[in-house]
Each structure stands twice: as structure tokens, then as C-alpha cells.
Automatic annotation (TrEMBL), chain A:
Cross-referenced Pfam families: E1_dh
Organism: Sulfurihydrogenibium azorense
The protein's name in its UniProt record: Pyruvate dehydrogenase
Cofactor dependency: thiamine diphosphate
SUPFAM superfamilies given in the database record: Thiamin diphosphate-binding fold (THDP-binding) (SSF52518)
Domain Dehydrogenase E1 component: 13-301
Keyword Oxidoreductase: yes
BP-aspect Gene Ontology terms: pyruvate decarboxylation to acetyl-CoA
Keyword check for Cell cycle: no
Keywords for the protein's UniProt record, in alphabetical order: Oxidoreductase, Pyruvate, Thiamine pyrophosphate
GO molecular function, one term: pyruvate dehydrogenase (acetyl-transferring) activity
Origin superkingdom: Bacteria
Alphabetical list of PANTHER family matching this protein: PYRUVATE DEHYDROGENASE E1 COMPONENT SUBUNIT ALPHA, PYRUVATE DEHYDROGENASE E1 COMPONENT, ALPHA SUBUNIT BACTERIAL AND ORGANELLAR
Automatic annotation (TrEMBL), chain B:
Protein name: Alpha-ketoacid dehydrogenase subunit beta
Highest taxon in the source lineage: Bacteria
Signal peptide: none
Coiled coil: none
Source species taxonomy: Bacteria, Pseudomonadati, Aquificota, Aquificia, Aquificales
GO molecular function annotations of the record: oxidoreductase activity
One Pfam family per UniProt: Transket_pyr
Record flagged with keyword Zinc-finger: no
Keyword Oxidoreductase appears in the UniProt entry: yes
Cofactor entry: thiamine diphosphate
Record keywords: Oxidoreductase, Thiamine pyrophosphate
Organism: Sulfurihydrogenibium azorense
InterPro entries, A to Z: THDP-binding, Transketo_C/PFOR_II, Transketolase-like_Pyr-bd, Transketolase_C
């Protein structure tokens, strides 16, 4: 069990990392436009939580690539989305920050900080209303926890006794503003404590994240009450590709990298060297194919500009 | 029937028919709604379906979005359009965009209802007409209801639609009586010709429709003309076809709107109609709008700030005489 989980975690974290490293390269070459927010360093949180919520609903912020991959969306459709192609997961209309796949219960990609938190609360209400108990997880950064959306959502989820896990990825920075310069309370889980069960965990350990989120999921399903997890993590890359990163020291980054979740898993003794090699090769190949797929895919038709705004047959809906 | 009763009936019938329809908002449940639009629904359908919320407008719309994603058809009530400003992020950045930026994968069958407009001495923060703010955002439909028929049929259609709808009501109409029949035909995607005429078209919507109707005979008699009156109905998408067809016939048009003139929705109507009818026109178009001021508390000043039947009459007569009518 432990070993098969370790193998799964390794595959997904590696797939996420190689996907993002490759996306960075393609961005530099000009094949990807707009903003590109990388989650490199945070994979343990994204993968551990998503594997625990395999069947549940997941809502995320704009740093959504690794969540989407872990939720089971094939990387080629995600890469094609980054390339703005017709075959992309959102037909090239969303880009990096807006990955969605409702058929896999993935409601990802919102790029207004904190705005998706009430969406997840509403989803939890709907699930409970319909008697579906697969659970809802919403992920957001430490920066979002200073916003009204956050507090309004904690209140509603607690008031309405909703089965939802709040997962805060505390990577210490809201773009370039360090947490102690933006938040009066720097142990984020304490903000949630008056409303619900809340704890702080090591977000650089994929097993710890998985275990905590599984426990939280079982709790919300049994008790029909919300649960809060603060995962301490770190992003190695700048906030986005246009961020200079001048707000943190090389030393700080080096310390964070020494806790790398993928390296840590490799050293756990649960993975054989041959397995690691097999996955590394597999992932390289898979991402190479994804890039080829994206490159060779057509641009969306010009008529796509006007679709997916209003329903086309709804004019028949007259009472 | 009262306007608020027509809205109530629409909600009741839709809730009865479809268990996925839920209502949420401040005081909508136990209290029965501040304008009594949701009266009786809490007792009939329970707190699970008629959901009292805290005063948190952003999350009222935000959770409604999540409910819609989860297979419900939420009808959110914002107590007044003024307070909807607190929900503008959810309306503008999520409600109107999720379908588009997911490439059509996410549907939001939801309605956000709210009253707006100048009432009586409620002062600046409770007296705004904000339709332009909603109507300028692609991806949400904006319906208006000016009487019982448009309220009842319009709201039912809005609930049935898979599109997110902003449903605008006018606070002063809630306790007004209008003719009503369930069988009356109304297409909420279309503008409505309330009165046919051949020399001039007057466009308006919400409460201004009634202020226009109060003086239309007087205008006709003074200028010795026949006037067509059109309730514009949906503000986005606009039923441009009905609007331009009328102007091509009458060759003159006036827009009456309660919101401030600068950036007011009438400017959008005017430019859209003008582009299609410029060479058909016998007179420059006229906008009768609110003043570009906040709404004051003092009743005398308040009435100076908005169109009234008297002002509509005198401005149209003056304009008509200057333009050969």
C-alpha cells in the first residue's frame, strides 16, 4: 500500500514538474503567452491533496497545472491549452490560469485571488443538498487568507455545516510581499480555528499531506462539517514569469530546495532505482509527446470568439 | 396583482416544479424578504431551499455560482442593486466568465435578482440605477421587469435558462398593481411594443415605462402626432431588431432612462439604433436621463435629479417643436 502510493506520488509529482519545466522553456521560446505561474516546489501539496480527493471536487487558484495533472487530465490537453490551441482543455480560451474539467470533478483555475473559495462552498452546499458525499476541496494561497472571500467562506461553511476541506498553501509570499508584511496572523490555521477543525502540516512531505487530507476528508464526510489545513510549502520559481524575484535571498531559496518533495520521496526507501529510472524516462516521453501534440494542433477557428457566451438553443425556453 | 406577487408566483411555481431551484439571500427566508418577494416560500419549502444568508453579498453570488456548478438552479436575491457593488467581483469576473474561459465546459444556470432605482428620500446609497454596469459585461444576460407579466414570465425564463441572468426589478414597482394573466404571451428576449404609433418612438424600461405612459396621450395631443412606446426589455443582449424596425417606421426616437446621463444605458441604445437608422431619421435623437449627480435626500432636489412624467412631457414637446413636429 505504502509502496504503491509512493509510486503514484512519484509519477504525478515528476510529471507535474517536468510539465512545468518544459512549459517554462516553451514560454521562453515564445510558444506560450500571457502569464505562467509555476508550482515547482509545491508538488507535494498539489499531488498529495489531489490523490486524497481522487473522486471529490477540487477548486483551485491560478497555479493549477499540477492539480490538473494529478486529477487525471492528460498533459497533452493541458500543454495544448498553454499553446492556446483548439485541442486545449478549454479550447484555447482559458490558458494557464484556467484549467477546468468537470467530468473529472476539476473546477480549477480561478485567477482572482480568493474568488473561488465561495464557489467551493456553494458546491459543497449543492452536494449535500443532493445527498452526494464525495467531498469538496478548495486550495488557495496564504495571500487569499487576508481577503473577504476567505472569511465569508469560513463563516458560511461552518454555519451551514458543509463537507468541505479548506487547504491553504502557505508559500510565505503573496507575489513579492512576505506573509509577515501582509497578515497580522502568520500561522494561517489559527485564522480558521474559531470556525472549524484546523491544523498546520509540513507541505513538503507528500505522505504527510496525503494523510492529513485523507483524515480531513473522512472527517467532513462523517461529520458534515468543514476542516482546515495549512500546508507549509515553498515555490522555487518566481510568482510568474514576469516576476524578478528580488524579494527573497538565494540562501532562503537554497534552504527551501534542500527540502524538495521529489528528492525527499526518492530518499524514502520506498522506491527502487529501476522504478525511478522507468518513471523518469516515461515522463520525459509523455511530456515530449504533449509538446508535439500542442505544436501540431490547429488554432481555434475565428468563430470560436463568439461561442460559449450564451446558450444557443435557449431562445426556445419560453414559458 | 402586485408586481412583488408576480415575482413570488414565478418563484413558487419554479420551486414546485423543479427541486433543484433554491433561493438564497439576506432575509429571504424566515423574515419573508425585505420587499416580501419570497413571502411564504420558507414555510412551504423549508430552510434547505429558501436559504437565509449573512450580509455578505460577494459570497451570496459566489456560493450561488458553486451551487450552479453543483447542479442546482440558484436564485440569489441581492437586497438592492446598491449592495450588488459588493458582489461585482463575483458577477464580473466569475459569473460572466466561467463558461467562456472553460471552453463551454462549465454552465451556470443561475439568476441574481435585485431591485434598483430612485425610491423616495432614501439618499445616495440606496437610490441608484446601475444597469449600465451589468449590461456592459459580456456573458451575463440582463433582464428587466416593468410589470407583472414581464416579472412573472421573465423570471421563470431566467430560472430555466442555462445562462447566468441579472434580473433587474424596480423598488417602486413592488407594491404597484398591474394586469396579469398566466396565459399572456411574453418573450423575455424581445422588446415589447406597448403602444403603436407612427411619428415618434419612445424607448424606456423598468419604472420609466410607466412615467412615459402617463403622459403619452398628452404628448400626442399637444404635438398632434402618434407615438410608439417600447419597453426595451432585455438590456443584454439587446433586441436591436425591434428597436430599429420601429425607428425606421417613425423616423424619430427618444430614450427615457432613470440612470445618470453620463455613461447611462441610453447611450448604448442610442448608438446601437443610430448606427442602423441614421439616414432614416427626420430629427436628432433625444435622451431624457437622470442628472449626473448622486441622489440627494431632500425630496425637492431628488425629483430634480430624475425624469418625472412632467419633465418627460415638457422635454419631448420642446424637442418636437424644435424639430418640425
Amino acid at each position: 500500500m505504502q509502496q504503491s502510493l509512493a509510486e503514484k506520488f512519484y509519477y504525478l509529482m515528476k510529471l507535474g514538474r517536468v510539465f512545468e519545466l518544459r512549459a517554462k522553456e516553451e514560454y521562453m521560446k515564445g510558444n506560450i503567452g500571457g502569464f505562467l505561474h509555476l508550482a515547482i516546489g509545491e508538488e507535494a501539496v498539489h499531488v498529495g491533496a489531489t490523490v486524497a480527493f481522487e473522486k471529490g471536487d477540487i477548486f483551485t487558484h491560478y497555479r493549477d497545472h499540477v492539480y490538473a495533472i494529478a486529477k487525471g487530465i492528460e498533459p497533452k490537453y493541458l500543454m495544448a491549452e498553454l499553446f492556446g490551441k483548439k485541442t486545449g482543455v478549454a479550447k484555447g480560451k482559458g490558458g494557464s490560469m484556467h484549467f477546468f474539467e468537470p467530468s473529472l470533478n476539476f473546477y480549477g483555475g480561478n485567477a482572482i485571488v480568493g474568488a473561488h473559495i465561495p464557489h467551493a462552498v456553494g458546491m459543497a452546499y449543492a452536494r449535500k443538498y443532493r445527498g452526494e458525499n464525495t467531498g469538496v476541496l478548495v486550495a488557495f494561497g496564504d495571500g487569499a487568507t487576508n481577503s473577504g472571500n476567505f472569511y465569508e467562506s469560513l463563516n458560511l461553511a461552518s454555519l451551514w455545516k458543509l463537507p468541505i476541506v479548506f487547504l491553504c498553501e502557505n508559500n510565505l509570499y503573496a507575489i513579492g510581499t512576505r506573509i509577515d508584511r501582509a497578515s497580522a496572523i502568520t500561522d494561517i490555521y489559527l485564522k480558521a480555528k474559531p470556525y472549524m477543525m484546523a491544523k498546520q502540516i509540513d507541505g513538503m512531505d507528500v505522505f504527510e499531506v496525503y494523510k492529513a487530507v485523507m483524515e480531513a476528508k473522512e472527517y467532513i464526510q462523517e461529520e458534515s462539517k468543514p476542516y482546515f489545513i495549512e500546508a507549509l510549502t515553498y515555490r522555487y520559481e518566481p510568482h510568474s514569469m514576469s516576476d524578478t524575484g528580488n524579494y527573497r535571498s538565494a540562501r532562503e531559496l537554497e534552504i527551501a530546495k534542500s527540502k524538495d518533495p521529489i528528492e525527499r520521496l526518492k530518499k524514502s526507501g520506498l522506491l527502487s532505482e529501476s522504478y525511478i529510472k522507468y518513471i523518469d524516462d516515461l515522463v520525459e516521453k509523455e511530456i515530449e509527446e504533449a509538446v508535439e501534440f500542442a505544436k501540431n494542433s490547429p488554432e481555434p477557428e475565428e468563430t470560436e470568439l463568439y461561442t460559449d457566451i450564451y446558450c444557443e438553443v435557449c431562445k426556445n425556453v419560453i414559458p | 396583482m402586485l408586481y412583488r406577487e408576480a415575482l413570488n408566483l414565478a418563484l413558487d411555481e419554479m420551486m414546485e416544479k423543479d427541486e433543484t431551484v433554491v433561493v438564497l439571500g439576506e432575509d429571504v427566508g424566515f423574515y419573508g424578504g425585505n420587499y416580501r418577494v419570497t413571502e411564504g416560500l420558507y414555510a412551504k419549502y423549508g430552510e434547505r431551499r429558501v436559504i437565509d444568508t449573512p450580509i455578505a453579498e460577494n459570497s451570496i453570488v459566489g456560493t450561488a455560482i458553486g451551487m450552479a456548478l453543483g447542479g442546482l438552479r440558484p436564485v440569489a436575491e441581492i437586497m438592492t442593486a446598491n449592495f450588488a457593488m459588493l458582489a461585482m467581483d463575483q458577477i464580473v469576473n466569475s459569473m460572466s466568465k466561467l463558461r467562456y474561459m472553460s471552453g463551454g465546459k462549465l454552465l451556470l444556470p443561475m439568476v441574481v435578482r435585485m431591485p434598483q432605482g430612485v425610491v423616495k428620500q432614501l439618499a445616495s446609497q440606496h437610490s441608484q440605477s446601475l444597469e449600465s454596469m451589468f449590461a456592459c459585461v459580456p456573458g451575463i444576460r440582463v433582464f428587466t421587469a416593468s410589470d407583472c407579466i414581464t416579472a412573472y414570465h421573465g423570471l421563470k425564463t431566467a430560472i430555466m435558462l442555462d445562462d447566468p441572468v441579472i434580473f433587474l426589478e424596480h423598488t417602486l414597482l413592488y407594491f404597484e398593481k398591474f394586469e396579469f394573466s398566466k396565459d399572456s404571451f411574453y418573450n423575455p428576449f424581445k422588446a415589447r411594443v406597448l403602444k403603436e404609433g407612427k411619428d415618434l418612438t419612445i424607448f424606456s424600461y423598468l419604472k420609466m415605462v410607466h412615467d412615459v405612459m402617463k403622459v403619452v396621450t398628452q404628448i400626442e395631443n399637444t404635438l398632434n402626432i402618434s407615438v410608439e412606446v417600447i419597453d426595451v426589455g432585455p438590456l443584454n443582449p439587446l433586441d436591436l431588431e425591434t428597436l430599429t424596425n420601429s425607428v425606421k417606421k417613425t423616423k424619430r426616437f427618444v430614450i427615457v432612462e432613470e440612470n445618470p446621463k453620463h455613461g447611462g444605458f441610453g447611450a448604448t441604445i442610442l448608438s446601437a439604433v443610430l448606427e442602423e437608422t441614421f439616414y432614416n431619421l427626420d430629427a436628432p435623437p433625444l435622451r431624457i436621463a437622470g442628472e449626473d449627480t448622486p441622489i440627494p435626500y431632500n425630496r425637492k432636489l431628488e425629483l430634480l435629479a430624475i425624469p418625472t412624467p412632467e419633465k418627460i412631457y415638457s422635454k419631448i414637446v420642446k424637442w418636437g417643436k424644435e424639430n418640425g413636429l
